[in-house]
């Protein structure tokens, strides 16, 4: 059985094809022509959540019928690629995990909206929860200890500010020496600035940014985006050892 999914067409996009069969020895993904096992924790978290929500699937024309229990036995072969550098600071893991979750949810007849799917994608890559939507998206921190209410919500769709254009200049396609996951872990453990940023800066800045997006106030939007970028780089330098993504 074969299906494919790619997100809304844009200059930067991630494309995924998947097959499932009883005859695959293990689930795996071919990314950038390199086979990667899906045995890792973040992949398994997503697969476990999707399988628990899977529904029956039937294609009468092709004579295919898969029950909810069958999904537990099936392994997946996934071919994944994006048209921008991987692991170079352009959120390739977020795009990949969002595409993976959305595509498998559609295949497995999971009856969840984007908001609930975002909670699943977040377990694979934090920023992946925001990548399920188009337009402007907010990642809600949530209050539950199990993270069930840490989801993404769409503030405005892609048509809200259609004359806003983002230009990305790729100065290096080389992979980062420090992954986002390990880098953020070091930052949380060693940076004093990240604590101040989380408690004092981010909550106020989110409110200001939401208003700038709502009113399409570009000067305010640009100022906030630049200030936040500068502070995030300061947080990286405040980490021990410093998180320097590219030389």
From TrEMBL:
What are the protein's UniProt keywords?
Answer: ATP-binding, Lipid biosynthesis, Lipid metabolism, Lyase, Nucleotide-binding, Steroid biosynthesis, Steroid metabolism, Sterol biosynthesis, Sterol metabolism
User: Which residues are in the Diphosphomevalonate decarboxylase-like N-terminal domain?
Assistant: 38-152
Q: Is tRNA-binding one of the keywords UniProt gives this record?
A: no
Mvd1 C-terminal domain span: 166-242
Source superkingdom: Eukaryota
**Stated family:** Belongs to the diphosphomevalonate decarboxylase family.
Its recorded name reads diphosphomevalonate decarboxylase
Query: What organism is this sequence from?
Result: Castilleja foliolosa
């Amino acid at each position: 059985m074969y299906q494919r999914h790619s997100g809304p067409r844009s200059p930067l996009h991630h494309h995924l094809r998947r097959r499932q069969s009883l005859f695959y020895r293990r689930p795996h993904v071919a990314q950038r022509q390199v086979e990667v096992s899906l045995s890792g924790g973040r992949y398994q978290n997503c697969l476990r959540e999707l399988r628990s929500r899977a529904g029956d699937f039937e294609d009468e024309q092709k004579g295919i019928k898969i029950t909810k229990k069958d999904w537990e036995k099936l392994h997946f072969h996934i071919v994944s690629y994006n048209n921008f550098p991987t692991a170079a600071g352009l959120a390739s893991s977020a795009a990949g995990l969002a595409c993976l979750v959305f595509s498998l949810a559609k295949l497995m007849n999971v009856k969840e909206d984007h908001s609930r799917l975002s909670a699943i994608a977040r377990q694979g890559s934090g920023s992946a929860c925001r990548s399920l939507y188009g337009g402007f998206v907010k990642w809600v921190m949530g209050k539950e200890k199990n993270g069930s209410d840490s989801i993404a919500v769409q503030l405005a769709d892609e048509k809200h500010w259609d004359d806003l254009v983002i230009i990305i200049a790729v100065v290096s396609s080389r992979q980062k020496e420090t992954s986002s996951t390990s880098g953020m872990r070091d930052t949380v453990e060693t940076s004093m600035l990240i604590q101040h940023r989380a408690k004092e800066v981010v909550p106020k800045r989110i409110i200001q940014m939401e208003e700038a997006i709502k009113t399409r106030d570009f000067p305010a939007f640009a100022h906030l985006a630049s200030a936040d970028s500068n502070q995030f780089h300061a947080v990286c330098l405040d980490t021990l050892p410093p998180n320097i993504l590219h030389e």
